[in-house]
Amino acid sequence: MATKADRIKARLPRGLTDRAPDDLRAAERMMAEIRKVYELYGFEPVETPLIEYTDALGKFLPDQDRPNEGVFSFQDDDEQWLSLRYDLTAPLARFVAENFESIPKPYRSYRAGWVFRNEKPGPGRFRQFMQFDADTVGAPSVSADAEMCMMMADVMEALGIKRGDYVIRVNNRKVLDGVLDAIGLDGDENAGQRLNVLRAIDKLDKFGVEGVRELLGKGRLDESGDFTKGAGLNEAAIKQVLDFTSAGGTSGGETIANLQSVIAGNEKGTEGVAELATIEALCSAAGYEGRVKIDPSVVRGLEYYTGPVFEAELTFDVTNEKGESVVFGSVGGGGRYDGLVSRFRGEPVPATGISIGVSRLMTALKNLGKLDTSDNIGPVVILVMDRDTTSLGRYQAMVSNLRQAGIRAEMYLGGSGMKPQMKYADRRGAPCVVIQGSQERDNGEVQIKDLIEGARLAAEIEDNVTWRESRPAQITVKEIDLVAEVRKILEAQAEDRANASKTV
Question: What's an example Gene Ontology biological process for this entry (predicted)?
Fold first, then answer.
């Protein structure tokens, strides 16, 4: 046996998390609802690997000897740099380029998977998290962007998030690029500074106007003493950027008019405003007015977006880790990225897509009481009272009969006595346990203990009359009737859960 000094300390790496059964099942159900919406719109599934060649992941990655800023990278035995994928979009661009001649175009696909960020972890900020994306590649029309916005709205409602609790906010990078050109940040030599401006604007909902003003200038010192270097703009340029982000009006038409004023005389910006006007018109015609909103403060952080950008924001308040009431915020977004596939093919390939943050959306649904955990019940547990071969054979037969009837079941496989076995069943969330000692075996019977009803009776019923009139928490039945009686108990429990959910 290893000494205490030799033992390895069990510890979870920073920025990562373990996932419990309830969360896994709830996530699967949530993703099934998202998948239904994607399928309804005609999208098809595809899967790409977790690892890509680093140079395939996009121009937003830094150009240095070891490209590990923002990504986890390593060298293969042929000295090629590989990276864990940063998102699901860049790998899709590689897949489309590699299979360009064989896939239908426009190519409409969806995929879910883990992505990895080599960044400083913090509250709600993980190094590994799951995204659920949908993309259309090969559609140059802004109609494809409008469709993405409408589909995101439909996803929110399919998950039970009611209108008024969410909004799909839309902007256009061409409009912002027009502003950046006007303040002298055009050209490849200013790519890094442009990205810093985008990241600063992206923090508007978190730090407010003054915080963003600092990030656009020399930088910002947060409460912990950490300093974030700013974009280094002068006061006139900062004012022009903030004027753009505050151009939102009370209606889409008013916002578009404000943007036209801000961007007057800039060809690229004017083109972007026209695209926003088209998205506004299409969404309104389809009945999404108020659900999809033009908002100049939306800036997706990645450099590869080239046109419309969108964000799904939840507008209800939650309490943060400091005890403050704050708006929940973004649970997903996306935009047009016409340059990603083109990097591989040397020809224009238009593309647009959305990405849903699965873990963050689950947190939102928990806050709203919309996360479905209704059928997260454990298996029926057959207790082991006697351990001779004949008795174990009978217990195993019971388990087999329950499983063949489609009922989750297990025989206790530990070495403990009855009391620890009952504690085990309780920890497993078992709906009931089956008990057969020597006396029950001689009589061809079993006892079935309803753990859910037993707990309810113990907690709620105080007088003997109510106890006698309630559903029995433990019954003795013929062994041959085990499956039928267990099914009755499970059906009664399911009815109780359904009735309880109606009263909430």
Answer: histidyl-tRNA aminoacylation
